[in-house]
Amino acid sequence: LQALAAFPIGAAVTNNDGPSFNIVTNTSEQAVVEKHFGEMTAGNIMKMSYLQPSNGNFTFTNADTFVDYAKDNNINVHGHALVWHSDYQVPNFMKNWSGSAADFIAEVEDHVTQVVTHFKAKGNVVSWDVVNEAINDGSPVANFRTTDSTFYVKSGNSSIYIEKAFQAARAADPSAILYYNDYNIDQNNAKTTKMIEMLTDFQTRSIPIDGVGFQMHVFMDYPSIASISAAMKKVVDKGLKVKITELDVAVNNPYSGGWPGNKITSFTNTVALAQKKRYCEIVKAYMDTVPAAQRGGISVWGTTDANTWLTTATAAYNGEAIAWPLLFDNNYNDKPALRGFADGL
Ligand code: XIL
């Protein structure tokens, strides 16, 4: 896959945070990654609570092994994620912060500085999701997350931690590409509008930011290609990069009862071909909408259907266990989706 593109084609993989899909020890996982991908994202181990479990105690061992494996195989790493409110990814000392807002913001800056500085020295960590999911899904008007974000609350009920994180990341590694990353911004909706407002504000005030990561945990039927393209175009028009950071295409949509209307209970050829078409259309929309100079790349969130996060996650997916969302089957064989992705490039 990577050979077909002039921009990074990546996959999220794990090291010591998943049962048997460890990139450092699983040779089947390695074979797929080394053959098809030029970039890796850590599924979990570069998140805050993994890297700084208690105040000032940085634990880089698993992440170092992960990044070193990539380096040994000429693979770059997209760092994920410096700041994310999601409950168990936030270190307890931050959740339980009882000091001042100014000191809390300094802790956020310190985390970003230490982590980015550490990985800059490796040489192959080329980009970062600096802040992940800071905007809520409000409709008709979306806003920054408030009470559900430790960062907002402990910063003195303020979104200032976002720009402070970007400034610290830029200062620590001026050559790293810095992204704001979120889900549901591919729908050209209130959340997209709020994000664009933030980007405009950052640009006006010279807050450093290079691009937007569109997570794109999408379905067969949703969102439409038209809305994906329209949302990406808004970022393109700001002169920023667009990166698809976490692509997967679940064949069942728990919000609409399945696809097409009925829950899929086996991955038939018909379903596989429809998924192939969907992957192709998404990649093609990216190619058509984002000019070459603004393409940050496309990453899938996992290699095989056996290691998708959708089997174990989450309340939002109603325990959906049959998503078959990725490019390879449980035995590491290509699915038609892989060809669909390639055809879109
Ligand atoms: C997921 C991981 O894949 C899971 O293993 C973990 O339990 C929860 O986080 N958006 C993101 C990713 O930005 O960090 C999430 O990763 C998936 C949704």
UniProtKB/TrEMBL annotation:
Keyword entries, A-Z: Carbohydrate metabolism, Disulfide bond, Glycosidase, Hydrolase, Polysaccharide degradation, Signal, Xylan degradation
GO process terms (BP): xylan catabolic process
Its EC number(s): 3.2.1.8
EC class (word): hydrolase
Superkingdom, natural source: Bacteria
Reaction equation(s) it catalyzes: Endohydrolysis of (1->4)-beta-D-xylosidic linkages in xylans
GO-annotated molecular function: endo-1,4-beta-xylanase activity
Residues covered by the GH10 domain: 1-344
Family stated for the protein in its record: Belongs to the glycosyl hydrolase 10 (cellulase F) family.
The protein's name: Beta-xylanase
Species, as recorded: Cellvibrio mixtus
Parent sequence residues shown: 271 to 615 of 621
